[in-house]
Nucleoside-diphosphate-sugar epimerase
Amino acid sequence: MARILIVGCGRLGIMVGDQLLRQGHEVTGLRRHPEQLPQGFFAVAADITDPASLAGLARQCFDYVLVATTAGEFNDQAYRRVYVEGLGHLLAALSKPIKRLFLVSSTSVYHQSAGEWVDEASVTQPSSFSGVRQLEAEALAQESSIPVTVIRFSGIYGPGRYRLIEQVLHGQGASGELYTNRIHIDDCSAVICHLLALSERGDEGDDQLYVATDHLPVTMLTIKQWLAVQLGVEGGTLSAASVANRRSSKKLSNSKLLATGYRFLYPSYLEGYSQVLEGWRQQHRL
C-alpha cells in the first residue's frame, strides 16, 4: 500500500484516486472544498495559491504526489498563479522524502504546426501563454529534489463532454487540413495509475517524460464527419472552417508510452466517441 496525495481533485484527480483506492492504496485529496471528495479519500483543505494553507503538509508523509491542477480561467495570470507559483508553493511545503511526483502537463508545450510528427524529444518553443506556463511548471518540478514524471496529455474528451456533438448537430464543420490529437479521460486516469505502478515496482526507467495520446492523429473534419454519420446528419452539409481558426497542426506519437506496456482502453476516436455518443443518447433518451 502506497500513501498518495492528489493535488487538484477535479474529475481526473478523483478518477485516479478512485482507481488507486480500489487497488488498496491510501489516497489523500487536496482541494479548497474537501467536503466534495468521494468516500474513502482522506481530505486536506488547502489552496496551492495560498502558501499559508499548505503548512500542514509538512507534518504528513506521502510516497507519491500527483499534481493535476486546473487554472480555472483561460488567461496568463491564472495559468501563472496556479501552474507555476502554486506548484512552487506546493514543492516548498511537501515533507521529504517522496518517491516520485507525477505532474499532469499538456501537449500545448509543442509549437509545431505543419502536420509533422512530434514526440518527447521534439523541440518545445510554445508561442501560447498556456504552453509557456506549462513548460515553466515542468522545469520547476524537474529542478526540485523530488524525482518527477511529467505526462503531457493531448486533447482530453469523455462522457459529458458533448461540444463536438452539438457542433455537428448545428452543422459546424472544421478544416480538413489540420490534425488534432485526442485521449479519452478513462485512458488519462489509467495512464497515471500505470506509471505509478511501474514506479512502485522500480521499472520506471530514467527519462520520465511521456506524451499521452491515442494511436490515431486525425483531422477534426474526419471526426466530425464520422459523428455526422452516427447522428444521422448529412456530412456534406457541415460548414467549412478556416485554417486560421486553429493554432497548430501536428501528429503526436505515443510510442514511448506504449513501450512501457500500457494498452489503451480507447485506441482511437472511433472507440472513444462511440462511448461518448452512447452516454449522449442515454441522456437525451434516444
In short: The radius of gyration is 19 Å. The chain has one domain: 3-157+183-214+252-265. The CA atoms of residues 230 and 244 lie 28 Å apart.
